[in-house]
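lol forgot to send this yesterday, sorry. struct tokens for the thing we talked abt
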């Protein structure tokens, strides 16, 4: 269970309030202690809220950088996979060729965007591995659309389609 900083501050303030009240020797001292306690609780809550906002902004920026890095790695991997599909795998049936190309893309992405793969838990045994495979397939299809038409025509002619 995760405890928010603001909740921890309120609990700490409530825990110290009776001790502060017992330290007061008179009513004016008690009022001073209560005022100090209230100000401390408010300052702590505001500070923890500011820390929370900064953490969210920083986390969002890190997530965006990780997404950008993974997209570059996926694009580079797809381009390499297309070259492989057009040359080394020319004798492989097209459906199997696409599966093999995607399998070849994954190690490239894991190396080129290791931080992003780790951040989003897309490593080989990660919970989001399927998502990485789907992203690789989508990027391969996208990059095939950008491939040189002459290269694709040659491959289509070679497979007899």
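and heres what i got for the seq, position by position
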């Amino acid at each position: 269970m995760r405890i928010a900083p603001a909740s921890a501050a309120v609990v700490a303030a409530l825990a110290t309030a009776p001790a502060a009240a017992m330290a007061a020797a008179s009513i004016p001292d008690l009022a001073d202690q209560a005022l100090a306690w209230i100000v401390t609780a408010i300052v702590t809550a505001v500070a923890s809220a500011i820390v929370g906002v900064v953490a969210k902004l920083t986390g969002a920026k890190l997530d965006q950088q990780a997404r950008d890095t993974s997209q570059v790695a996926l694009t580079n991997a797809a381009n390499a996979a297309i070259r492989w599909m057009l040359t080394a795998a020319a004798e492989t049936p097209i459906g199997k060729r696409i599966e093999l190309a995607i399998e070849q893309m994954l190690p490239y992405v894991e190396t080129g965007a290791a931080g992003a793969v780790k951040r989003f838990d897309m490593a080989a045994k990660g919970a989001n591995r399927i998502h990485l495979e789907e992203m690789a397939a989508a990027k391969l299809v996208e990059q095939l659309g950008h491939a040189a038409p002459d290269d694709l025509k040659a491959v289509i002619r070679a497979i007899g389609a």
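The radius of gyration is 29 Å. anyway ping me if u want another try
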